[in-house]
Amino acid sequence: ALVDELVSAGSFSTVIRASRRAIDPRPGCDWVYLDVEDESSISKAALEVTQKYGRLDLLINTVGFLHGADHVPEKKLDDLDSTRLQRSFAINATGPALIFKHFHRLFRHTRHSVMATLSARVGSISDNGLGGWYGYRASKAAQNQITRTVAIEMARKAPQCVVVALHPGT
């Protein structure tokens, strides 16, 4: 939906979609392979975009993980599982951190630009009144802290670049 909106708005000459799966081509779009659980794929995607385009004006990381076929949100301490916690952090915190690591140089130009990552309000420490969802909450809190820290560094290195975590709603 974001890609469709960005293409139809006509504000960008090219929209680049990154995914673990090949995506049907569409006018005004390019595609690169990227798996947030594989740093080498992130590095290769950033290199490919750098070589082809040289810079970016907008990056939106939409990757997030709450549950899967073998992974449900933890409702109580007894539900915690090391492997599941590590997967939540790998996708929700480490993945976005590595995207920032490998793509930030594409934003060191003089145009206004944005690096955004979809997060979640449940990652707020002060707004946690319900408990539960341990891995998801903690990994999104980590993602929020990483994003804030990236914003501080980018303010020095690329002051025209806004770095932001977005809560898209439930």
Write the layout of secondary structure elements.
Blueprint: H1 2-9, E1 15-19, E2 29-33, H2 39-53, E3 58-61, H3 82-103, E4 113-118, H4 134-157, E5 161-166
Parallel strand pairs: 1-2, 3-4, 4-5
Task: Walk me through the structure.
By secondary structure, the chain is of the alpha/beta class. It is 41% helix and 15% strand. The strands form 2 sheets. Strands 3-4-5 form a 3-stranded parallel beta sheet, covered by helices on one side. Helix 3 links the parallel strand 3 and strand 4. Helix 2 runs parallel beside helix 3 and helix 3 packs parallel to helix 4. The longest helix has 24 residues. The two termini are 16 Å apart. The model has no long low-confidence stretch (mean pLDDT 93).
Task: Kindly summarize this structure in a few lines.
This protein is of the alpha/beta class. It has four helices and five strands; from the N terminus they run H-E-E-H-E-H-E-H-E.
